[in-house]
Amino acid sequence: MTNRRNPAPPAATLDINCDCKEYVVDYLTKSFPVRLMAVFTDENGNARSEPMSDENGAPALCRSALAARDSMIEQLCALPPIATALDAIIERFGVDQVAEVTGRTRRLIVGRDGCQVLQSRSPRANVAETRDFMDGTKRILVFSDAGGTGRSYHADLAAKNQMRRVHFLLEPGWRADAAIQGLGRTNRTNQASAPLFRPVTTDVRGERRFISTIARRLDSLGALTRGQRQTGGQNLFDPADNLESTYAKEALHRWFGLLFAGKLEAVTLSRFEELSGLRVEGPDGGMVDDLPTIQRWLNRILALPIALQNGIFDEFLGLVEARIDAARQAGTLDIGVETIAVEHYEVLTDTLLRTDALSGATTHLLELEIARALKPLRLERLEELYGFSGSRQQLLRNARSGRIGLLVPARSLLTDEGTRVARFELVRPLKHGHITADQLEESNWEAVDPTEFRRLWQVEVDDAASNHKRERLHLATGLLLPVWDKLPSDYVRVSRISARDGRSLLGREVPLHCVPDLCQALGLEDEHAFSVEQIVDAVLGTGRPMQIKSREALTLKRSLVNGAQRLELAGWSASRLDWYKAHGCFTEIIRYQTRLFVPTTSAVAVLAGLVG
């Protein structure tokens, strides 16, 4: 007798939905307000409310609220599945291209036949996935907190995959320390190139609250480790991203003042107090002294409707960016270490500023000539980022310099009086910056047709790609703490000069016009003599006056006359006026005063004659 067994039936095709609807539905079911409330007046005359119950003591429910909740749940369950970020990435690029280093023991993937497959993962899977990414077999790596412990994913010189990493930060959460630890996994020593960090947020402004916590922690690291500043923010975030900085706190205080005065467009005082539960107006009708802290304000903003939330944040960030722009223009904005990648650098002069009596450590002032390879923004990338078809962009050409630029609307600044200052982002092949509407109107930028714009842009890109930019700078390096108070307080910029051959220098940049004061403060008055060309470039570039060594104590400064920048001499003697004019200077009587100017086109030759 033969024992026959029937074959097992084919496994049913998997149809599993792994989105987060069940959590939202659970929340609505348990937390949606459906109970009737009875309003009464307490002994102080304040309106209060309490839950109602029927004659049996059971909760009295509101039928309209129940219907609204059930309708919302029905609509939510009818929506198509929304995959998580991890599953969406794997589904889009495939398991052959994505290395997953997480704590999942099972995952749902789409097989080659297009059907869902439930895949088990052993603890050794993370080791294999990491190896595949570092060997270049898989181009994309996704790791979580569980997968980021004890592993490195940087472009190691010993690894096969030395391509530059682009690190996207998804769902940073409240734990800034965990996010910072994850960012450090792709930025280590002995790497071929530093990674590009890309924090990912949506258009909900309140989401910046989470990024702000990480930015604040990075800034605090930079402040605590002043001697080794590269452990701080590393310019990963813009200063405006730290919503708990000094600039943000000052802006919030002013925001409350504008709210109290009724000068904000996004929200009124009464509505803000009603929705947020924060008190700004005191019993006496004035603004309270103990205003809410910025952390408390940010948390309350997160609970507001999205449109209102965005409107409040736009005005608040306008105040923050106005303060940061002012600090940047004044040179007082401390952004930590800025790495300047150069092709090579040459030390022209090395001046010993100080030698420590105990340790023998020295402080030097180096004059460097650096050569930087220009990396212009290519036309294809420009169109990908901004596009030319929209009505918001303007294609411009500078009538004076012939340079080309793309004008894109940017967030408006908000003055302390509550006035909006319209602002634009001006994108050019080699740099981009911001310009206000008034500055744009007074400038020489004019519209140009798209064909000519593309041609001129490509010309600038081709010229820049074949040239190197050479510039000179002074760097205070070595033991800086004893001379920190002697360095210019209105120009705080810590730079790391990193050459292609591996050499690097770390120190504080000293503007040319500040070098004489620094040397004088350290008793080195005659150690530095600047060429006429350096003085002219420094005065025109910074607008700071500089002394010129001649028979008279002359000062060269930049002056605005009839809308044009001129070079003006101060401290000259009226008895030698004809001598100055004979050497190429010219005069102009302004408000009954004779002023002496140097032609900007031949300033170097004219000043060389005066000095000689």
TrEMBL record:
Transmembrane segments: none
GO biological process: methylation; regulation of DNA-templated transcription
GO molecular function, one term: methyltransferase activity
Keyword Transmembrane helix (UniProt): no
Keyword tags: Methyltransferase, Transferase
InterPro entries hit by this protein: SBNO_Helicase_C_dom, SNO
Domain of life the protein comes from: Bacteria
PANTHER family registered for this protein in UniProt: PROTEIN STRAWBERRY NOTCH-RELATED (PTHR12706:SF30), STRAWBERRY NOTCH-RELATED (PTHR12706)
Protein name: Methylase
Species of the source: Croceicoccus naphthovorans
